[in-house]
Every structure is written in structure tokens, then in C-alpha cells.
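Deliverable D2.4 — example input (C-alpha cells):
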């Protein structure tokens, strides 16, 4: 072992000769790096899916909700509230819905007790709702003017309630609304900006007024604003709806809620990174402990090499190289494992795969630093052993 190549060979052979021990001390770097790579990758992939979703749906949707004085029930907007909102210069489209309280929706006969306990929201809606929401139909069609003019009893289901009812695309199906049969004409796709709509059934305002005897006044308005004017539009809507009257209006921008959720994911990412660093630290302590024991177990080997003239520095450097190998291999395997986890979870969840490849060398470098630091004490301990002392330990 007269040169560096020989020293590398001896260090590598020392790790290969004790495979179980080597695997155990590599677990710390593997788990730590895998945790950090997957933490960043998964949160960024989730955020990437969110950003793609927002770019498709738009961040310019405002939802206006009717409010009322203390103790009032079912507050509503004036019938012409949509026209009032559309007169705002920054508004490009608006659509109103009305929550129909007391209407029980039954998919089949005999399910009344269940759906009375867990009622399905029934809403009266106008013809513009899918366009304003920027959500397509996944089956059939939306309510149209002919349904109002011909007084047809048509109903559209949200995607969630369609699955709950067991509705099959294209089938002829009726549902019972307070004892009146309504024909299902379509299924609305998932509405990420207002998930409550996924589990609702929609009828025309004519049906709401003439069959369920409502006054035709909406209590929720969906508004699309010009890009870049969403916040300003949300502030103006209450004034436009109220026009000096007693109507109370609250507004929300649903995309802000989704972006807040992304920020929460960022906090979760930081927690996961700390957990990865903790795993690396604990792994480093494990490396130091196991290699210290290994020095005692390999004392005869160390004594023989010292007796034939190997210097203290070579003995110590050999053990330091073993720690270096552990850091390099553990970091590499952990990085591969972390990337695999990101791909697997993102594929299963339907996310856009985003991996911060530029950060991976940083995590691997941390694993290497921890491993070398942990190997310093065992290396110094091995270098200080005298040949006679190794006979006593052996």
C-alpha cells in the first residue's frame, strides 16, 4: 500500500468485507438525502400542478355571497344583481346561482331517509355559469334557454354527485326533487375554484320559481374580471350590487385560497427539510459509533500494519476514506430514491413532476460533510493505536 490507489483499494475492501455494517451506517445519509430531495420535489410538484391549474382556470374569478343582518335566513341579492355587476367596467362576465333550501334530491326511490340526513345542495343557475367558471361539461349539455322557454324539468349534476348517484355518461336518467322527476341532461366537470359545486344539482330559475316557489333572487354571483383587476373588482362589487340599499355582500377570490395552500406546502417543505437534516445528523452519530466499534474489532489488522511500517497518517486516512465512501454512496442512493419517490407520487396524484436537480448536489454534499465529520474521531482513534495496544484489544 505504497500509494493513494492502494489506500483507496484497502478502504473499499474494508467496506465490502462488512456489507451489513456498511449498509447500516449508510442508512443515515440515504434517509436524510431522500427526505430532502422528496420534500422539495413533492411540494414543488404539487405547486406546479396548482400553477398549471390556475393558469388554466384563471386567477380572475370573484365569488360574491349575499349577507344579512343578525338572525336573517337565506339572504339574497336583487333579481337584477347580475346586470348591476356586469355594468362594472372591469367585469367581463357574471353568473348567479340560488341555493334552494328544503329541496331533497333523491337518485332512486327508497333513499329518502339518507338524503334527508345528508341533503344534496340544489341550485338554480343561469345559462352562463360554465362559461364564467371556465369549466367544461364532461357529459351531455348545460341548461339552456330552451329549458326555460319550454319549461322542461332538466337538471345538471356536479361531477361528485354524479359519481355518488352512479350516473353513467349518456344514460337516460331521472332524479326526484321534492317528488318531481327531473331528467339529467349533463354532468359538469370538477370546479377546483369552488369544490362545493361538485356535489350540487342545478336546475333553471324557471323551475326554482314555478316548481319550488322561490322568488328568483340569487344569493351567490360568480364574476370574471379583466386580468390584473381582480382585487379592484372584488372591492367594487358590493357597491355595485347594493346601490345604496341594505344588501350586504362579501367577496372572495378563490385563487388566493389555493395560493395560500401552496404557501402552507412551502412551510411543510421546510419542516421536511429539517427532518432530513435531523436524519443526517442522527446518521452521522451512528457512523461515528459503528466505526469506533469497528476500530476495536479491527485492532489486530491495524497492529499488523503498524508493525510492518505503515504510518499513523495512512491508518487514519484509510478510515476517513471509508467514511467518505459511506457519504458518497449514501448520498447518491438517497438522491436516486428521493427522485423515484417524487416521480411515483406525482404520477399517482396527477401532478406536474418538478425536481430541483440543481439542489441535489447540495444535499449530497451535506451527507458527505456529515459522514467525514463523523469519521474523524474513529480515524484519529485508529491512528493513535500502538502495535502492543492492539494485541491487548484483540
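Example output (designed residues):
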Amino acid at each position: 500500500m505504497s500509494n493513494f490507489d492502494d489506500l483507496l483499494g484497502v478502504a473499499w475492501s474494508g467496506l465490502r468485507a462488512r456489507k451489513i455494517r456498511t449498509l447500516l451506517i449508510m442508512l443515515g445519509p440515504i434517509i436524510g438525502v431522500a427526505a430532502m430531495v422528496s420534500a422539495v420535489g413533492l411540494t414543488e410538484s404539487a405547486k406546479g400542478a396548482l400553477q398549471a391549474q390556475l393558469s388554466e382556470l384563471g386567477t380572475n374569478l370573484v365569488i360574491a355571497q349575499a349577507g344579512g343582518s343578525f338572525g336573517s335566513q337565506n339572504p339574497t341579492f336583487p333579481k337584477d344583481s347580475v346586470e348591476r355587476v356586469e355594468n362594472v367596467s372591469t367585469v367581463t362576465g357574471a353568473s348567479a346561482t340560488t341555493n334552494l333550501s328544503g329541496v331533497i334530491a333523491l337518485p332512486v326511490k327508497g333513499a329518502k331517509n339518507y338524503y334527508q340526513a345528508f341533503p344534496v345542495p340544489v341550485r338554480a343557475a343561469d345559462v352562463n355559469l360554465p362559461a364564467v367558471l371556465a369549466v367544461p361539461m364532461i357529459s351531455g349539455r348545460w341548461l339552456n334557454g330552451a329549458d326555460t322557454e319550454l319549461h322542461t324539468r332538466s337538471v345538471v349534476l356536479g361531477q361528485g354527485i354524479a359519481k355518488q348517484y352512479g350516473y353513467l355518461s349518456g344514460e337516460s336518467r331521472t332524479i326526484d326533487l321534492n317528488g318531481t322527476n327531473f331528467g339529467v341532461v349533463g354532468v359538469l366537470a370538477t370546479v377546483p375554484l369552488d369544490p362545493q359545486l361538485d356535489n350540487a344539482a342545478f336546475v333553471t330559475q324557471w323551475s326554482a320559481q314555478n316548481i319550488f316557489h322561490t322568488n328568483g333572487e340569487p344569493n351567490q354571483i360568480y364574476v370574471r374580471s379583466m386580468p390584473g383587476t381582480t382585487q379592484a373588482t372584488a372591492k367594487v362589487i358590493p357597491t355595485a350590487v347594493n346601490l345604496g340599499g341594505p344588501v350586504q355582500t362579501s367577496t372572495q377570490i378563490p385563487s388566493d385560497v389555493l395560493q395560500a395552500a401552496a404557501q402552507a406546502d412551502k412551510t411543510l417543505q421546510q419542516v421536511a427539510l429539517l427532518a432530513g437534516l435531523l436524519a443526517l445528523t442522527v446518521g452521522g452519530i451512528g457512523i461515528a459509533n459503528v466505526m469506533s466499534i469497528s476500530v476495536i474489532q479491527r485492532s489486530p489488522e491495524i497492529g499488523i500494519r503498524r508493525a510492518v511500517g505503515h504510518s499513523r497518517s495512512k491508518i487514519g486516512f484509510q478510515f476517513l476514506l471509508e467514511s467518505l465512501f459511506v457519504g458518497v454512496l449514501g448520498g447518491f442512493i438517497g438522491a436516486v430514491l428521493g427522485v423515484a419517490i417524487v416521480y411515483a407520487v406525482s404520477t399517482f396524484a396527477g401532478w406536474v413532476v418538478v425536481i430541483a436537480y440543481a439542489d441535489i448536489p447540495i444535499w449530497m454534499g451535506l451527507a458527505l460533510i456529515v459522514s467525514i465529520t463523523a469519521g474523524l474521531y474513529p480515524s484519529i482513534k485508529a491512528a493513535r493505536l500502538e502495535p502492543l495496544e492492539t494485541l491487548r484489544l484483540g
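The mean pLDDT is 82.
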